[in-house]
Amino acid sequence: MNYAKTAALLAALTAIFVAMGAAVGGQTGMVIAFFLALAMNLFSLWNSDKMVLKMFGAQEVDERSAPEYYGLVRDLARRAELPMPRVYIMNNPQPNAFATGRSPSRAAVAATTGLLDALPREELAGVIAHELAHIKNRDTLTMTVAATIGGAISMLAQYLQFGMLFGGHNNERSGIGMIGAILAMLVAPFAAMLVQMAISRSREYQADRMGALICGNPRWLSASLLRIERAVKRIPNEEAEEIPAAAHMFIINPLTGQGMDNLFSTHPNTANRVAALEALAEEMAKSGIDVSGAISTGGGAGPSGPWSQTSSRGPWG
């Protein structure tokens, strides 16, 4: 259902783009705007992992520097039948995480020190499994396609605006008139933004479901979502506040809500996500699937606690 919804939303974005092309009235401007947007987004896709990780000051770790965290990612990646992603830590007190990369073979998972400090091992497994689900679903590619079309729509709106300002737009030829042109400039980019946000919310639900299946217990993920949401309200993420356009990448919206960017959320309501995960847990239980066990990380952490009690360096190594 979520895949179909995403396809429908991408089709809606395409329809908005085509309508904007008709509003501009000229094939040349439409083609130029589209290819400029395509080029920018292809560049972002190709370099997305490096760009985003650098923006948030993420540092790569390995099995020696962060044995338990790295081991958890490794074992969950095996369960998800994915190549081992690169593993990063962000020095940030707000508990949160994201995945990036243009393909499973180029993927990276990043978690904050706040997440590693705050979450029990099972809840962290739920978070990491959610991010691996994004990788498995190639959600970064989906969002890049949406961004490409959305960017082209914004460029066409600007083209139309400048055409009107400098007399380059022939309203008689396009047949939409001055009022229609103004509406196209204002409504189309706004509609495209709403569709992009809807696509992001749709992908979160799918990643929640697949992540719960990867870690083996939907309630680990639902508990982590509630814990992270409570912490986000108390602990600001300064880097994310400076780059609100990247908020959709995190498992929970990292913005505190102090700015206008939080009026329209890129994430579903957490209570709705938890309800969906609870329904999945009941569905699995009725099917005879045991959702009470703990996974083995190979890092030495037993079921009685999230991390090895013998480590003096903290849960990340």
Instruction: Tell how many strands the DSSP assignment holds.
Output: 4
Order of helices and strands: HHEHEEEHHHHHHHH
Which structural class matches the secondary elements? mainly alpha
Write down the Rg: 22 Å
* Proportion of helical residues: 55-70%
| Largest beta-sheet details | 4 strands, mixed
What is the overall silhouette?
A: globular
User: What is the CA-CA span between the terminal residues?
Assistant: 40 Å
Low-confidence stretches: 171-175, 258-263, 296-317
Short description:
The chain is mainly alpha-helical and 317 residues long. The protein has eleven helices and four strands, in the order ααβαβββαααααααα. 62% of the residues lie in helices and 5% in strands.
Task: Describe what you observe in this structure.
62% of the residues lie in helices and 5% in strands. The protein has helices spanning 2-24, 27-55, 67-79, 113-118, 121-136, 139-165, 171-174, 177-215, 218-234, 238-242, 270-286; strands at 59-61, 86-90, 97-100, 108-112. Helix 1 runs antiparallel to helix 8 (177-215), helix 8 packs across helix 11 (270-286) and helix 9 runs antiparallel to helix 11.
